[in-house]
Amino acid sequence: MSFVTRRRFLAGLVLPVFVWLASCSRQPAQREPPHRFESKSAAGIETLTGRVVSLADGDTITLLDAANTQHRIRLSGIDAPESHQAFGARSKQSLSDLVFGRDVTVFYSKTDQYGRLVGKVIVDGQDANLAQIKAGMAWHYKEYQREQTPEDRELYARAEEEAPAQHLGLWQDANPIEPSQFRREEREERRSKPSAQQ
After folding, report:
1. Residue 27 lies in a domain
2. Where are the alpha helices (DSSP H) in the chain?
3. How many domains is the chain built from?
4. Which of 21, 75, 170, 187 suits a disulfide with 129, CB 3.0-4.6 Å?
5. Which residues are paired to 118 by β-bridges?
């Protein structure tokens, strides 16, 4: 076999191998997961992991990270009863049962006026925020629903529809008062007291 013939023979073998290898290397790029947390509507999401070391109420926790730094976390998308409001203690206990002393991941994109990170808390693959609504221990915080992904907005809204139908948690109360309304009424009451004394 001449040099030219041998060269053409090898080229005929090598080219199909390169084509096959190139097609293999392109396949993983086409197999992206169907849903990732950082979707278009959740751009700028950051993560924080650590252990939950304390709870203020049914929607606020303190997390200790690997560097022993404490972070206060306000659970996004929900509003739990205030600690001195009906079902406040039970809501806190419900959240404690879910996350206290456990390692969690927080997906957050903002800090509130009190310096707390506002985020979604995931424990063992479960959305703790959503679990609080499902248990009837928090409302879907509709005032801030535009900050949620469309998927979360729908899940939280549906959970809030189902909990009252089953009379779960705070929905056992004949007339449960949303925490935002409770806080407004408290502020108005405080403002009216000094004027009543004059």
Report:
1. no
2. 3-30, 88-99, 128-134, 150-165, 179-197
3. 1
4. 75
5. 74, 110
**Residue 136 near residue 169 (C-beta atoms within 8 A):** yes
63: left (phi over 0), alpha (psi -120 to 50) or beta: beta
Per-residue pLDDT of 63-87, as tens digits, reads 999 999 999 999 999 999 998 899 9
Q: What is the pLDDT of residue 106?
A: 98
Please check whether residue 12 lies inside any domain of the structure.
Answer: no
Q: Is 63 helix (H, G, I), strand (E, B) or coil?
A: strand
Residue type, 45: I
Domain CATH code at residue 49: 2.40.50.90
Judge residue 67's burial from the number of C-beta atoms within 10 Å of its C-beta, 0-12 exposed, 13-18 middle, 19 or more buried.
exposed
Active-site residue set: 74, 82, 116
Question: From residue 76, how far is each of 14, 116, 156, 169, 195 by CA, in Å?
Answer: 57, 11, 11, 20, 36
pTM of the model: 0.74
Residue 169 to residue 133: CA distance in whole angstroms? 9
Residue 186 lies in a domain: no
